[in-house]
Amino acid sequence: MSDIYATRFTPADLKKSVGFYIDLTDGRPFNEVIYPDFPAPVLRNNLDGSELGISRWGMPSPDKAVKHKNDKGITHIRHSNAAHWQDWQTVAHRCLIPAIAFGIRTHKSTPLSGNNARWLSLHTTGNLLFFAGIWTEWVGTHDPQEGEKSHSLFAFLTTAASSLRDQGTPVSLPVILTNTDELDVWMTAPWDTAKQLHRPLDEQKLIYL
Q1: Strands 149-160 and 76-77
Q2: Residue 172 near residue 161 (C-beta atoms within 8 A)
Q3: Each residue of 125-137: pLDDT tens digit?
């Protein structure tokens, strides 16, 4: 599965893709590599509309999966209809995760960031793509040194890979939304409609970097 992704955009880039949003990041540009349990820019639905804010990668785990007090969270949602996710299926908990590439960490350094990863992107390399995700506010312990506190958390949906698996990476793919209609459906439609987007992308649209 993808356990790393890269994001790079300016406010102008994001507005070109999604239109108006409330910016809680003071209009800063982003050029970062994101790892599990790290903060990242996320376009979230909230009471006043779509907002760009900083959330941490990893939704709360089921109680039975938390063996210690600290919960590092679930980064990928493979079965979005599972009981654990039903409270977060509503429009209020939908989000879009802007990215330019994703991959898994390896022992080989790559040009994209200098980090050890094998990267994939759309054929339109460098353009923004969006993962379909959910987010929530959660009070709990991610790090015992921090103690219990309030967190804004997110995770994105994944699906099975097929031909790409034969090449060794990855075994699953993020759910990637590629046009404005899909973005709008994910952020505004009832769950019975939005969940139809939880399906594989045509892998012919992806390239290794």
Answers
A1: parallel
A2: yes
A3: 567 899 999 999 9
